[in-house]
Amino acid sequence: MKQCFVIGGGGHARVLLHGLRGLGWQVAGYVAQEPSSAMPVPWLGQDRCRLASPEGLPGVAFLGVGMVTSAPWRRSLIEAFLAQGFDLPPLITHNAMVHDDVKLGDGSVILDGAVVVTGSRLGRGCLINTRAVVDHDCVLGDNVHVACGATLSGGVRLGADVMIGTGANLIQGVEVCAGAVIGAGATVVGDVTRPGVYLGTPARRRQ
Ligand SMILES: CC(=O)SCCNC(=O)CCNC(=O)[C@H](O)C(C)(C)COP(=O)(O)OP(=O)(O)OC[C@H]1O[C@@H](n2cnc3c(N)ncnc32)[C@H](O)[C@@H]1OP(=O)(O)O
């Protein structure tokens, strides 16, 4: 049986456990700052400590750390595990739909009900959450989160560390710069060229 461990011990890590079981992975446990009584698998130690002494960990890890705002630190976490020699394959859960020519970077996760459409390219550590849509020819930098039910129309481009909130919508072809946060329910109808928090319909930068 394929053995792996999960990085992270919060709600997103538990979601990942379901996805991994559905795909036949045996999860040895998780690494996180501290143990969590909600996790049904063993705590294998603190993430940074286990990076320094990785003996006994399976060679394959999945990134189970969520993000609710722009979180560049998450990118360095991925890079640290890769640099230590762990394999962080992308994860597509059983009920997600990803067209076969889509490119996914290490550590990216596509959750149940999400759809990622032909021609799209996602960087490392992207999270396409439950029922989100990334339509054709989108380009996502590293460490982008498209939260539950959000929609990227065709040809959208997102820089690194972008957060797209739950239920937000981006029309075709818009570009969002690195580090921007699009609030839940916002509608983006033009390029976002300055980092910041964007809210409403049409989305405007919060002062
Ligand atoms: C499986 C999962 O759970 S994945 C997680 C998914 N999570 C998300 O999508 C979260 C997205 N985050 C948001 O939308 C957040 O509200 C943010 C980032 C836009 C703003 O967060 P904060 O900076 O903490 O703002 P805060 O909650 O203090 O609100 C400040 C003001 O903005 C308003 N506001 C907050 N979010 C929004 C929004 N999405 N749209 C419109 N107004 C908003 C608040 O009502 C408040 O208004 P007030 O000053 O008139 O009372």
TrEMBL record:
Active-site residues (renumbered): H136 (proton acceptor)
Binding residues for acetyl-CoA: H145
Residue ranges the record marks as coiled coil: none
Site (Increases basicity of active site His): residue numbering on this chain: D137
Gene Ontology MF terms: acyltransferase activity
Lineage: superkingdom: Bacteria
Keyword vocabulary terms for this entry: Acyltransferase, Repeat, Transferase
Record's keyword annotation contains Acyltransferase: yes
SUPFAM superfamilies listed in its UniProt record: Trimeric LpxA-like enzymes
Name of the protein in its database record: NeuD/PglB/VioB family sugar acetyltransferase
Source organism of this protein record: Halomonas sp. RT37
Phylogenetic placement of the source organism: Bacteria, Pseudomonadati, Pseudomonadota, Gammaproteobacteria, Oceanospirillales
